[in-house]
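Saturday, quiet lab. Running sequence design on the C-alpha cells for the scaffold JK sent over.
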C-alpha cells in the first residue's frame, strides 16, 4: 500500500537522465522547451490549446471559442464540429499510412491478424451502417462487452462515427454489474461475443449478458461476435450474429460532423460512495488530450509498434489503445489473453515476435513478472523495445529498477504516467527526452496541467510536504459530468475544495517540481490496478441474507498493491463457518465481478464503532494490516470487538 512505498521511494535518490541519443530523436528533447510550453499552456491556455487543436485535429467546422469555464463546467472548442472516428481513421487514408498496420492482434490461442488503416476504415464503416440500420441514432447509448479483440475497437469507432455514445464494460464484470450500467445509461444496443480466451479456457460472455438482460428494458438488440465458437443461446428477435448483421453491407460511410462537446463515451468507475459513477467524456477535448499526450509521453514515431496491456474496458484502453494512438496513426499491438499463458514469458515472446518498440503496463503486472522469475525474461532478446511506460498505481523504486534493467536493458526510459478515468488523458508524466526520470515519482505535469498539493483547508503546502493533490484549472480531456448525476459530479470533484478539482489522491511535490503520489486518501481501493469502492463492496454484502453489517478496507499486499479485507457481523442466529465465508466471497463475485472477491473475510459479533455509532475504519485498517491498533480509541464503544477481530483469520 501507499505508506511503505512512499518512504522507500523517498530513499531512492538516483535519477536517470535521458541519453543524448534518445534526446536527439525525441519529440520533445529539452527541459527548457518543456518548461516554456508548460508555462504557456497554463498561463495562456487559450493560445496553447487553440493552436494544438488546429494542429492536431481535423475539423469540419472551425471552433469559435477555445474555452468556456463556469466552475465546475467546461466547454472546449465551442462552435467547432468534427468526427472522432474520422480523426482516428479516415485522416490516414490517402496518406503513406493507408496500408500501414493500425492493429496487430494476437489471440491467446496464437491466432494473429493484421488490420491496416484502410481495412479498419472499411470495418468501421460497415458496422456504422449496421448500427444505423438498427435505428441507433446520435446520442443513443451502446454497451460493449467484448474480449480484447479488434472488433472491440471497431465497435467503439463505429459508435463514434455515428455519434452514438459507447459504454465499454470490462469483461470481468458480473451480470448484476452489467445490468446496473445498462439501466443507468439506458443502453439500446449491446455488443458482445460468445466468449473470449483466458488461460486456455473460454470466458463466457454471452451467458452473462443474457442474465443481465433479464431486467434491462431499454436494450432492443444484441450483436454477438463469434470468437470461441462455444455453445450459446440466441434469443429470437433480439440477438443477431455480428457476421450476419454486416454480411454484404457497404464498407464506405459518409460520416456526419458533431459538436466538439458531443458525448463520446460513458465509462463507469468506482467512487467513495454509492453506486459506480458514469464518467462522461466528450469529443474534441478528450481526443486532443489523448492524442497530444500519446505523442509526447510515448514519444511516438512512425515506425513504432506499441503494446499497451490494459483492457479496453478501462480508461487506459480507451485513451492509449484506441483514441490517442490511432489518432496519431500508430500501430497498436493488441493481445487477448493472460500474460502467463501458456507460460509466464508470453509478453516477452510477443515483443520479440512482433518487434514491439513501446510497452505500457502496470506495476501490478511488473510485480508478477518479478515473482515469476528472471529466467522467463532472459529467454528473449527484447532488443526492439525503446520505451517503457507504467500506469495505475505508484511504482516502487524496486519494481522500477527491475523493469528498467530486466526489460529495458538499462537502455529504455520508463515513463510513469499518473491520471484517472476522470482526467481522460495523462496529466503527470516526465517527458522521456526532456527531463531526468526519478524512480517512484509520477513526474512533472503535462501541458495545461496546473496541479498543486494542498492541506485540509485547501491551502498550498510547501514543497516536500504531503497533502492532497488538486488541479486548479480545467483541461481539455477532463470529464464533463457524471451521467444523470451532475450534483454528484459537483460534490465528488469540486466539493472538498471549492472551485478546484480534487483528485482523491495524496501526494507531495519535490524541490524539482516532481509529483510523488502516495495513493487514494478516500475510500477507493486500488487492487491489482482495479479501482474498487469500499462502499460498493459493502452494498454488495448488504444484499446477502446473513449479513447484518460490514466494512471493506484495504491492506498492503506485495503483489496486488492492496488486498481487499471485509469485516462482517452476522444477523442474529446465523453461525459463522468457512462455508459462509466462501459464500460471501462468491456473493461479491456475483454482485460485482470475480476480480472484486475479497482476499480475507473476517466475521465477528460486532464491528468497532464510536459511541455515536460510526464504524471506525481506521481501526479496521490497522487490524487488517496486522498492525497494533494505535491512535485515539477514546471514542470506541466496545474494546472487546477489536480483540475478537484480531483473533479472526
Ligand atoms: O490513485 C491514482 C492511481 O489510480 C487512480 C485512478 O484510477 P483509474 O481511474 O482506474 O485509472 C487508472 C489508470 C489511469 C488514481 O487516482 N494511479 C493511476 N496512475 C498512477 C496512480 N498512482 C500513482 N502513480 C500512477 N502513475
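Result came back. Writing it out in full:
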Amino acid at each position: 500500500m501507499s505508506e511503505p512505498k512512499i518512504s522507500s521511494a523517498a530513499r531512492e535518490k538516483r535519477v536517470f537522465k535521458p541519453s543524448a541519443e534518445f534526446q536527439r530523436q525525441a519529440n520533445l528533447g529539452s527541459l527548457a522547451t518543456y518548461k516554456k510550453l508548460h508555462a504557456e499552456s497554463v498561463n495562456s491556455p487559450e493560445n496553447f490549446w487553440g493552436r494544438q487543436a488546429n494542429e492536431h485535429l481535423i475539423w469540419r467546422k472551425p471552433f469559435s471559442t477555445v474555452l468556456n469555464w463556469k466552475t465546475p463546467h467546461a466547454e472546449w472548442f465551442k462552435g467547432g464540429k468534427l468526427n472522432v472516428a474520422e480523426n482516428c481513421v479516415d485522416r490516414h487514408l490517402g496518406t503513406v499510412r493507408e496500408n500501414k498496420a493500425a492493429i496487430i492482434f494476437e489471440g491467446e490461442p496464437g491466432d494473429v491478424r493484421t488490420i491496416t488503416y484502410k481495412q479498419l476504415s472499411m470495418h468501421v464503416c460497415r458496422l456504422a451502417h449496421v448500427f444505423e440500420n438498427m435505428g441507433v441514432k446520435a446520442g443513443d447509448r451502446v454497451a460493449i462487452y467484448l474480449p480484447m479483440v479488434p472488433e472491440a475497437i471497431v465497435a467503439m469507432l463505429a459508435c463514434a462515427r455515428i455519434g452514438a455514445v459507447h459504454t465499454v464494460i470490462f469483461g470481468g464484470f458480473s451480470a448484476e454489474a452489467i445490468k446496473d450500467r445498462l439501466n443507468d445509461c439506458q443502453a439500446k444496443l449491446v455488443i458482445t461475443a460468445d466468449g473470449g480466451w483466458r488461460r486456455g479456457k473460454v470466458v463466457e460472455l454471452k451467458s452473462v449478458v443474457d442474465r443481465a438482460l433479464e431486467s434491462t428494458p431499454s436494450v432492443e438488440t444484441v450483436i454477438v461476435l463469434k470468437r470461441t465458437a462455444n455453445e450459446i443461446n440466441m434469443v429470437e428477435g433480439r440477438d443477431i450474429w455480428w457476421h450476419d448483421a454486416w454480411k454484404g453491407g457497404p464498407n464506405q460511410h459518409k460520416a456526419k460532423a458533431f459538436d466538439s462537446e458531443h458525448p463520446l463515451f460513458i465509462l463507469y468507475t468506482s467512487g467513495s460512495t454509492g453506486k459506480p459513477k458514469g464518467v462522461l467524456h466528450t469529443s474534441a477535448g478528450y481526443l486532443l488530450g489523448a492524442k497530444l499526450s500519446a505523442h509526447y509521453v510515448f514519444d511516438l514515431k512512425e515506425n513504432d509498434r506499441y503494446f499497451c496491456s490494459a483492457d479496453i474496458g478501462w480508461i487506459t484502453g480507451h485513451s492509449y489503445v484506441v483514441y490517442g494512438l490511432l489518432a496519431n496513426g500508430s500501430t497498436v499491438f493488441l493481445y487477448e489473453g493472460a500474460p502467463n499463458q501458456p507460460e509466464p514469458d508470453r509478453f516477452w515472446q510477443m515483443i520479440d515476435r512482433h518487434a514491439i518498440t513501446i510497452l505500457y503496463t502496470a506495476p501490478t503486472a511488473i510485480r508478477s513478472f518479478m515473482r515469476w522469475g528472471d529466467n522467463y525474461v532472459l529467454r528473449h532478446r527484447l532488443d526492439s523495445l525503446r520505451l517503457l511506460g507504467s500506469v495505475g498505481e505508484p511504482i516502487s523504486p524496486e519494481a522500477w529498477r527491475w523493469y528498467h534493467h530486466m526489460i529495458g536493458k538499462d537502455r529504455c526510459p520508463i515513463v510513469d504516467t499518473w491520471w484517472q478515468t476522470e482526467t481522460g488523458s495523462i496529466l503527470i508524466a516526465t517527458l522521456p527526452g526532456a527531463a531526468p526520470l526519478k524512480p517512484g515519482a509520477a513526474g512533472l505535469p503535462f501541458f495545461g496541467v496546473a496541479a498543486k498539493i494542498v492541506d485540509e483547508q485547501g491551502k498550498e503546502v510547501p514543497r516536500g510536504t504531503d497533502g492532497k493533490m488538486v488541479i486548479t484549472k480545467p483541461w481539455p480531456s477532463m470529464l464533463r459530468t457524471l451521467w444523470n448525476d451532475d450534483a454528484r459530479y459537483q460534490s465528488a470533484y469540486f466539493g472538498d475544495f471549492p472551485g478546484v478539482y480534487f483528485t482523491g489522491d495524496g501526494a507531495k511535490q519535490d524541490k524539482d517540481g516532481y509529483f510523488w503520489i502516495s495513493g487514494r486518501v478516500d475510500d477507493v481501493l486500488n487492487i491489482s490496478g482495479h479501482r474498487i469502492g469500499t462502499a460498493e463492496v459493502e452494498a454488495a454484502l448488504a444484499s446477502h441474507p446473513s449479513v447484518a453489517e460490514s466494512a471493506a478496507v484495504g491492506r498492503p499486499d506485495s503483489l496486488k498493491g492492496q488486498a481487499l479485507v471485509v469485516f462482517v457481523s452476522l444477523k442474529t442466529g446465523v453461525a459463522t463457518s468457512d462455508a459462509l465465508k466462501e459464500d460471501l466471497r462468491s456473493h461479491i463475485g456475483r454482485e460485482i465481478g470475480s476480480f472484486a472477491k475479497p482476499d480475507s473475510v473476517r466475521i465477528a459479533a460486532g464491528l468497532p464503532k464510536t459511541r455515536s455509532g460510526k464504524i471506525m475504519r481506521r481501526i479496521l485498517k490497522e487490524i487488517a494490516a496486522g498492525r497494533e491498533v494505535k491512535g485515539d480509541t477514546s471514542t470506541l464503544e466496545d474494546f472487546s470487538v477489536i480483540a475478537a477481530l484480531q483473533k479472526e483469520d
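Notes for JK: The first strand starts at residue 65 and ends at 70. Confidence is low (pLDDT under 50) at residues 1-9. Ask whether to fix the surface positions before the next round.
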